[in-house]
Amino acid sequence: MVLGVGDPAPDFELEGHPEAHYSLKSMLGRPLILAFYPEDHSPVCTLQLRAYSDGMPEFSGLGATVWGISPQDPETHRAFAERQSLSVPLLSDLDKKVGAAYGVLGPLGFYRRSIFVINRQGLVTFCHRTTAGLTYQPMSTLLKAVREAEAEPS
Q1: pTM of the predicted protein model
Q2: Domain 13-151 adopts which CATH fold?
Q3: Which residue of 10, 97, 117, 148 sits 20 to 30 Å from the alpha carbon of 103, by its own alpha carbon?
Q4: Confidence (pLDDT) at 41
Q5: With the C-alpha atoms ordered 74, 113, 32, 56, is the resulting torsion angle positive or negative?
């Protein structure tokens, strides 16, 4: 079964940058955007995470949080975040188990650029998976998805 809209988001616990333990369970009660991305320091990933970092005040204004998830280690995430002045926490899915649970692994096991909006109750209310990964979901799409998730009856 492929994870989709209306499904409970799979729980996880990952290390990341800033240094902390991040878990889906800890975010219940507020909207969460998971931005799965292939690799730190790549051009499209850099543009995507810069855009989401720049939009953090807008996300926060809706009570939402954004986390980036990729298979790199926390030290690589730290260097990437510092070099690019990113404010989005970057989580390390070293064994790609979270990527597999969310169905974002391509045929060769590489991450496909994917977005999931999870509502306060822990249900997926928006998902988008790319095949080529050369584009990313713009801020306007994500803000709209969060607003719609918040407007749905609980």
Answers
A1: 0.95
A2: Glutaredoxin (3.40.30)
A3: 148
A4: 93
A5: positive
